[in-house]
Design goal:
The chain is an alpha/beta fold and 295 residues long. It has two domains: 159 residues, Periplasmic binding protein-like II (D-Maltodextrin-Binding Protein, domain 2, 3-Layer(aba) Sandwich), CATH 3.40.190; 99 residues, 3-Layer(aba) Sandwich (D-Maltodextrin-Binding Protein, domain 2), CATH 3.40.190. Helix content is 40%, strand content 25%. Strands 2, 5, 7, 8, 9, 10, 11, 12, 13 and 14 form a ten-stranded mixed beta sheet that branches. It is elongated and about 65 Å long.
């Protein structure tokens, strides 16, 4: 009897041990685990709604301040949205902020969500992504900067790329438009090199600062890294300024038109004193003016 009990027990213990030692699995949400929130229809009927707001932690945009409070450009814009909804439409919104540190998981979670779910992750608005998600009106223009170590001579002509970047390898943030840009450069000038990939901006900046890689990054991340003393250089010749960021919602969301109305109200939210104050408070005067100047 003891022998019969021992073998299954050993098997269970061994299975648990192996599971604990195995790499972390990629989690696929089941329908029961989907993020969800109240619909706009429910909000109109009840005069209130509970919304799930997924965010990717990012300095200046969604971060915890010295007082332990969640704040930042994206967070405060959503709070302005909630204040506008109550003031002008008598709909009280409860914003339930949920952190997701992996950008690709964040994107997938919003895609799979139901109802009143919003995503704050500095997502560039593209036609391809509009097939997967709904976007708010743009809340900020972006500048994509090509960066290297500061010792690399500034690129003045595309014909000099192969020479200036001869000792550097291409590096990309997986799943972003910057990866597309880096692939385009690699294919044109260094077709024999493999693209190295990372999944966070801090890792990307550290690797570029090591002097081994070149990459694209959002201008605000480059600017902050330079302010922190990282030995980086941008190459204005390669800057791309034609993209904008939007909040994202699942395709099934009925909140999109209401969010569009918020951005259009009272002469346009991005023309408001509140928007400018938020940008300056959380990004600093100089960076805020740089980004506001591209609007």
């Amino acid at each position: 009897m003891l022998q019969k009990l021992t073998q299954p027990c050993l098997f269970i213990m061994l299975s648990l041990f192996l599971a604990a030692c195995s790499p972390e699995p990629v989690v696929s949400l089941s329908p029961l685990e989907q993020d969800s929130g109240d619909t706009f229809q429910q909000a109109q009927q009840q005069g209130q709604a509970s919304l799930t707001v997924l965010y990717v932690p990012a300095e200046g945009f969604a971060y915890t301040n010295a007082a332990g409070e969640l704040t930042g450009v994206s967070v405060e814009i959503m709070r302005d949205f909630a204040r506008w909804a109550e003031r002008h439409h008598r709909i009280r919104l409860q914003l339930n902020f949920v952190a997701e540190t992996n950008w690709q998981h964040f994107y997938q979670r919003v895609m799979m969500a139901e109802g009143g779910v919003f995503g704050l992750g500095n997502v560039t608005i593209t036609e391809a992504r509009k097939q997967e998600l709904q976007f708010s009106s743009p809340y900020m223009n972006n500048v994509a900067a090509l960066i290297t170590h500061q010792d690399i001579t500034e690129l003045q002509d595309w014909d000099d790329f192969a020479n200036h970047f001869a000792e550097l390898e291409p590096l990309a943030f997986s799943g972003t438009l910057h990866e597309v840009r880096i692939r385009r450069l690699r294919d044109t000038y260094q077709p024999d090199l493999a693209i190295q990939r990372v999944t966070s901006n801090p890792d990307l900046l550290e690797l570029v600062a090591s002097g081994t890689f070149y990459s694209y990054v959002d201008a605000y991340n480059y600017w902050r890294a330079r302010q922190a003393g990282m030995p980086l250089r941008d190459h204005p010749l390669a800057a791309e300024t034609d993209e904008t960021f939007g909040f994202i919602m699942p395709l099934n969301s009925d909140w999109s038109q209401f969010m569009q109305a918020f951005f259009a109200a009272e002469g346009g939210y991005r023309n408001s004193a509140s928007y400018r104050q938020i940008m300056q408070q959380h990004l600093g005067q100089e960076l805020a003016e740089l980004l506001l100047g591209h609007e």
